[in-house]
Design goal:
The protein is mainly alpha-helical. The chain has 12 helices and 2 strands, in the order αααααββααααααα. The chain has a two-stranded antiparallel ribbon with strand order 1-2. Helix 2 crosses helix 3 and helix 11 crosses helix 12.
């Protein structure tokens, strides 16, 4: 997972009080430190606050020692404790995290980008033509249940990636290179800033209604699709933001049916 605070003037102002404790610290590490502060139960080895050390300094030292300076970082999302993963729900939704102690209640900025991966099953071979998977349906379900529905609901893009063929000299596939894709993304972000003053991901409900308008036919089609897939209202709103982004990447003003259809493919159906 990668935590990355948005690089904007507003977020720089918000993060300033935190940077006072650790000047010069990258924003992504500060965001990770703030979320570590909110763990409902501290894991073994969690440092005790001593002397005049601030909570942020204590937790940063723990992160560097436990996660960044060693090679035991967990690579798959379900390998983390479910209680730890549930802590992500609040900052993913609001962009802030609240630290409550005996006498104080402090609100910190924690806007970040979550990138996570998981196997289809505990052994990782489910769906492989080779038939190597030895997991029972109950084992697969227990593995997937480590990620709650509300947490998955807050992830905008869900992609299934097939195993690549073993080839020492693979053929170069046609398509856009990274530089071209980065230029498209930069143009889309600039388009969003000029239109609404923020990225599509940060649109509130009034902004969503204003900048993600649909035709009557497309609105009815989307409502029917959400009902058929049993998607929540939160999922529908996030889906609209993704569709708006797809339209921006194509440099068109109106969200079309094909944008909605593609955005729907990135949402997992509720079991």
């Amino acid at each position: 997972m990668i935590g990355e605070l948005a690089d904007s003037t507003r977020h720089r102002i918000e993060i300033a009080p935190v940077e006072r404790f650790v000047p010069g610290m990258p924003h992504c590490w500060l965001a990770s430190a703030l979320m570590m502060l909110a763990f409902p139960k501290k894991p073994s080895g969690w440092p005790r606050k001593s002397g005049k050390s601030s909570p942020i300094q204590v937790n940063l030292s723990f992160i560097f020692d436990k996660y960044l300076s060693r090679n035991d970082v967990k690579s798959k999302m379900p390998e983390f404790d479910r209680k730890v993963l549930e802590v992500l729900r609040e900052p993913m939704e609001s962009g802030h995290i609240v630290i409550a102690r005996a006498k104080d209640r402090v609100r910190f900025p924690a806007r970040f980008q979550l990138v996570a991966a998981m196997n289809p099953c505990p052994c990782g071979y489910l769906g492989e033509p080779s038939g190597k998977c030895s997991c029972t349906p109950d084992m697969v379900q227990r593995y997937r249940n480590k990620l709650s529905g509300p947490l998955l609901d807050r992830i905008d893009l869900h992609l299934t990636v097939a195993r690549e063929a073993t080839a020492l000299n693979p053929q170069v596939k046609p398509g856009e290179d990274s530089a071209s894709a980065a230029a498209l993304v930069a143009e889309a972000r600039e388009r969003q800033q000029k239109r609404q003053g923020c990225a599509n991901a940060f649109l509130d409900l009034p902004g969503l209604k204003r900048h993600c308008k649909l035709s009557t036919a497309d609105e009815t089609w989307l409502e029917s699709a959400c009902e058929r897939l049993t998607l929540s209202l939160r999922s529908a709103h996030r889906l609209l933001k993704v569709a708006r982004t797809l339209a921006d990447l194509e440099q068109v003003d109106a969200i079309r049916r094909e944008h909605l259809a593609e955005a729907l493919q990135y949402r997992p159906a509720t079991p």
